[in-house]
Amino acid sequence: MHFTNTNPKLELCVIRAEGSLLFDDSGKKYIDFICGRGTANLGHCHPIIVKAIQQQASRMIHFTNEIRMPIQEEYVNRLGEILPEFDTVFLTNSGAETIEAAIKISRLHTGRTEILSFSNGFHGRSMGALSATDGQKIRAPFYPLVPDFTICEPTIESVQENISSNTAAIIIEPIQGAGGVIIFPYKFLKSLRDIASKKGIMLVFDECQCGFGRTGNYFAFQKFEITPDILVASKTICGGIPAGGMFTRLIDFPEDLHGGTFCGNPLACAAGIGVLDVFISENILTKVA
């Protein structure tokens, strides 16, 4: 058996990582500028995060969300401390999965179907996330995509032209990652907030890449002082363990309308607590700022 062709392999064979360094099978050392596609904000194998994972792995790796788990409750409470703007979180396993949850809850809450996103934006490769993502190369082979998605130019004029009475959500990376580290102006994001509030549209900030410390705040929306209705996080949220979170204000899924087997699993929650411990103990945000 062999790997699919989705990620062609370089000749480099990495067997160990520590901090900002990688080590290949011959012992040669490299500086890691890939950062695990954005997951290694705090470096590889930080001892606090490793210890948290090891301790939890010896107790319980996985269980079901129908039963209370103290580690899960502790993690959600810790997230609430850094995100007092939101009152509900749905824990996931990836950024794309989190975007899918945001799309579903936006349509559910508003009773509308249309989703607006922006050129150069990247939100994932599952069918809903891909429908919000720009780029013909990765979109065209999978047509037809999910209906009622429109990719706008990053101008208020384009947004106003495409908004209708059936618009459920506007999805945007406040700082685009894969699109080229494009920082949207405050005035533009503030106008989106005003339009969404006026028209009852969900404003969704995708902070899978720009979140968790990269701006000197935990999230870019805090830097801009513009709070979305829905916040999407992933990548480094659990230090490299597959995880994500959809944070909402005043809206939630009814029982049994969404879920996932591995969502909020104990190992990821322990790693997430470890990540937050590092941010505090090492004064990460102040250093980044």
How would you concisely characterize the structure shown here?
The chain has helices at 35-38, 47-59, 70-82, 95-110, 127-132, 136-139, 156-162, 186-199, 220-224, 266-281, 284-288; strands spanning 14-18, 21-24, 29-31, 88-92, 114-118, 149-152, 167-172, 175-176, 182-183, 202-206, 230-233, 244-248. With 289 residues, it is of the alpha/beta class.
How would you describe what is shown here?
By secondary structure, the chain is an alpha/beta fold. It has one domain (47-288): Type I PLP-dependent aspartate aminotransferase-like (Major domain) (Aspartate Aminotransferase, domain 2, 3-Layer(aba) Sandwich), CATH 3.40.640.10. It has helices at 35-38, 47-59, 70-82, 95-110, 127-132, 136-139, 156-162, 186-199, 220-224, 266-281, 284-288; strands at residues 14-18, 21-24, 29-31, 88-92, 114-118, 149-152, 167-172, 175-176, 182-183, 202-206, 230-233, 244-248. A seven-stranded mixed beta sheet has the order 4-12-11-10-7-5-6, sandwiched between helices. The chain has a three-stranded antiparallel beta sheet with strand order 1-2-3, with no helix packed on it. A two-stranded antiparallel sheet has the order 8-9. It is globular.
